[in-house]
Amino acid sequence: MGADTQTEPTGPPHKGALVALMERLAEIGASPEDSRDERLREGALILAASAIALLSFVWIITYGAYGHYVSAAIPAVYQVLTLGGLIVLARTKRFDIFRSCQLAAFICLPALLQVSLGGFVPSSGVVLWSTVTPLAALAMIGLRRSLPWLVAFIAIVVGLAALEAWFPVDPALLPSGVILALFVLNITGTMLGGFVLLGYFVHQSELARAALAVEQERSERLLLNVLPGPIAEQLKEHEGLVIAEHYEAATVLFADLVGFTQHTATMRAEDLVRMLDRIFSAFDAIVDAEGLEKIKTIGDAYMVAGGLPAPRADHAEAVARVALAMLRQVAAFATHGEHPWLQIRIGIDTGPVVAGVIGQRKFIYDIWGDTVNTASRMESH
């Protein structure tokens, strides 16, 4: 009966600024039927594309300043493609076209820029930006469909290494400090791009784990409201296990409201249920305080057992204390409540019982035997 002591489940983690930004950017091309998950994917790609387009000014200005106009034109082409793609996306809401164009640009333009500059070192390893392609594909279209983009990236890098000897005889001769600075930019920039894209996965994973924890805790509370804790643990560890135990000595209590059936004919349904809920909730608290096991309620009858599923020597005394507390509680309800007719009958018996779980749907922990029958007859007579 420990379910009422469980703490309330905590909710999922608070939405971060990065996720909020991706959600706002997704509005550029989101369709009304897009799910939140799809909007986050769209926002992540738009954010990555916009950031790379802004960074492209560094290459345009640098290569243009040193007279490498063809090399400067390549990142400028990417800016134009991205800006045009966003305009088309906002009008058509065809995110699949924007996504395909961006993936193709991510993988092709850095390779072309490296070729124009004469190799890995003169270009400061600009082909590193192509690593965004398989990561973006993984985030956007899933593992299986992203594999061709990964294969294409590997093929391009291997091809660039194999063909570097046939690149221009006079590679771009930039100052060593500029080459080093661009190396740092390329490494950190690709890391940030990957971080934005993979941040989507991390956020989704955190949401999934938090939602799972909430559901597990809720399910645990519901299960403990149906079954005793030790019995619930056995069923969780051994699916399909038959739970059946014989107890040589246990005490069973039946409690029943006197004249309840006659009064139900004159009470509103809401008042009836509200009254039973108050009474039985008070009984639950009494039973919990004594460490006994509530078995079930049947109509206006309430059934309790002591000495099971965990045996205890004082089960009869504990059940007797519960009975006296029930009498006092019902008397208090009758005196101070709206139902002065309230009275309760209680029957108790001690002896051997059999306990177990029956059913596969809406299952219940129940007890059987002459002790149960005698307690029931004592209550009714």
How would you portray this structure in words?
The structure is a single chain. The protein is of the alpha+beta class. It contains twelve helices and five strands. The chain has helices spanning 17-26, 36-65, 69-92, 95-117, 132-141, 143-163, 176-226, 229-237, 260-264, 269-290, 315-336, 370-380; strands spanning 244-257, 293-298, 301-306, 344-358, 364-368. The chain has a five-stranded antiparallel beta sheet. A hairpin with a 2-residue loop joins strand 2 and strand 3. Helix 1 packs across helix 2 (36-65) and helix 2 runs antiparallel to helix 7 (176-226). The radius of gyration is 36 Å and the shape is elongated. Residues 1-14 have low confidence and may be disordered.
Low-confidence stretches: 1-14
Order of helices and strands: HHHHHHHHEHHEEHEEH
Mean of all residue-level pLDDT scores? 82
The tally of strands reads 5
Question: Helix and strand layout, with pairings?
Answer:
Layout: H1 17-26, H2 36-65, H3 69-92, H4 95-117, H5 132-141, H6 143-163, H7 176-226, H8 229-237, E1 244-257, H9 260-264, H10 269-290, E2 293-298, E3 301-306, H11 315-336, E4 344-358, E5 364-368, H12 370-380
Antiparallel strand pairs: 1-3, 1-4, 2-3, 4-5
Helix pairs in contact: 1-2, 2-3, 2-7, 3-4, 4-5, 4-6, 5-6, 5-7, 10-11
What are the key terms here?
single chain; 381 residues; alpha+beta; 5-stranded antiparallel beta sheet; 12 helices; elongated
Short overview:
This protein has 381 residues and is of the alpha+beta class. 62% of the residues lie in helices and 12% in strands.
